[in-house]
């Protein structure tokens, strides 16, 4: 539920966090704009999700989903406070990306749609799981919102379709990627912080 972005400013990094609260805020804004019937998962099936007609209105009116995400948000906020304190982060160092979860039979939070926080970072290029959110004006509003948060930082957002390959098996993009990186020019274990 957390990803660290490379430093945009010297000695400063940003932390991405999954946020049901951000998702509900975005969906309520779209509903007020008259987009409540915008459909999610166009042509895509996800693990355990009824994809026949999932709309913004349906997500916002599902008491069970709202309650589960309220619980998950409280858990995320608890972790947020610990990470802020331990890493010396300010609130503006944390970027909330829209996410929704459902609780499985064991009470484990499972992504309702592909979790964009579980991206792969290659310098300034981000390989982000395609969320298949509500399409408004020909574009997924979740992708549009994420771009508006990350591209001003000089990052390039690339949304990758991985529903069938990873999300359906309760994983995301970084679960199935192997990035070849250049080794350090020095023996990292001799480095003193």
Automatic annotation (TrEMBL):
GO terms for molecular function: calcium ion binding; histone arginine deiminase activity. GO terms for cellular component: cytoplasm; nucleus. Gene3D superfamilies: L-arginine/glycine Amidinotransferase, Chain A. Residues 9-190 form the Protein-arginine deiminase C-terminal domain. It holds the Pfam family PAD. InterPro entries: PAD, PAD_C. This is PADI2 deiminase. It comes from Geococcyx californianus (Greater roadrunner).
